[in-house]
Fold this sequence. Notes:
YojJ-like (1, alpha+beta, 13 helices, 6-stranded mixed beta sheet
Amino acid sequence: xxxxxxxxxxxxxxxxxxxxxxxxxxxxxxxxxxxxxxxxxxxxxxxxxxxxxxxxxxxxxxxxxxxxxxxxxxxxxxxxxxxxxxxxxxxxxxxxxxxxxxxxxxxxxxxxxxxxxxxxxxxxxxxxxxxxxxxxxxxxxxxxxxxxxxxxxxxxxxxxxxxxxxxxxxxxxxxxxxxxxxxxxxxxxxxxxxxxxxxxxxxxxxxxxxxxxxxxxxxxxxxxxxxxxxxxxxxxxxxxxxxxxxxxxxxxxxxxxxxxxxxxxxxxxxxxxxxxxxxxxxxxxxxxxxxxxxxxxxxxxxxxxxxxxxxxxxxxxxxxxxxxxxxxxxxxxxxxxxxxxxxxxxxxxxxxxxxxxxxxxxxxxxxxxxxxxxxxxxxxxxxxxxxxxxxxxxxxxxxxxxxxxxxxxxxxxxxxxxxxxxxxxxxxxxxxxxxxxxxxxxxxxxxxxxxxxxxxxxxxxxxxxxxxxxxxx
Length: 473
């Protein structure tokens, strides 16, 4: 039996069932949810209401299309950073980003996806869509925003099937809480894109979702690094594949990644480079990695989602280094260190003579002719192993080992090693130079002499340019 949203004429005042009596209160609920979730994804951003065209309080705001009338327009901030203005129900808000970089392309795509999810919620609430409300209530709201970015067709007004990405995220969340033989579960899922021709599912194929997590052996069957579950266009679990073999079979042999990715997950990124495929991996630290478009676009760790947007961030780093090959080697090194949760500091000094003596101690510099003052064996005693070498000619594992030592790995603009394991000097005389950690303070000061990548043990890579933190990855 259908339930009317209109109150019964005889119902007591204050206890009538239905929508909020004041339509403006209903509008404020949707706007409040959007602002709350926006600040959850972008905690450093400010969301400011724009009252240059204030609404008439004597009547509720109505959208022309019978919905949220969500719109997003890029709008640079006063200092030139890339921001945006969004509109819901005619109410406009400015998104003021943090850091010099502003909002990236992936950030704007996610914000549009948030609008699509809220629009679908609105349509379902007023029965203008055939989508079941249960599909939107499964999982966390932010999971649906990520899913709408990766699988927009599932959140279109005429869609009726649940999002396969949202179901996969919910399943991985459940498996992150489980153990198998006293070990944490790791697993992975490869979801075939809509560009792939539909094929009949095997007889007895199960729908992939959180219900399958009751099979505890499923996590042991697919470790996520090599073996992953294959989900077809209908959302059914159709196979278990070796992702490396699948990539060799389904992608061109000459396929390469435009943006560096940790070597452990290169095949996962390549699997999503074309065809609209999405790959999700539950790692050993219970973090969820999401790959799409040939890169890791999202990550869930420490209770929140992060938008990675590695393409935009790598482009900024590459332009600052002004040597594409060197930029790629150092960026790759940083990704490998952060994957192993090892800290580090990678610095490029275009003019070494300015840095040596100011940031790098002369006795730490390679090829400087200054011998160690102490006769005790130490790190400076083995610096001859790196004399005259370039990171461009060294094995990646050796570069990563040198970068993992306490201190900084410094190179010039051509990739020649200037120092490794060096404790950078800094004079934090300016209040803005004082940071929460010694490594961050050193990165801020050193970035005035050249671009810097700081790797934190908590799994974040940060880029510093000209004394400012430009981005976090």
